[in-house]
Amino acid sequence: MSVFQYKFDVRWSDIDANRHLANSSYVEYCAQTRMAFMNQEKIGLAQLSRWGIGPVILHERYSFFKEILGDQTVWVTLEVSGASEDASIYRFLHKFYFPDGTHCATSEATGVWIDTMLRKATTPPDEILEVMEAYKDENCKILTREDLKNLPFKPENVEAFHKQNTFTWRKKNQEESK
Question: Phi first, then psi: what are they for 119, rounded to 5°?
Answer without folding.
Answer: 60, 40
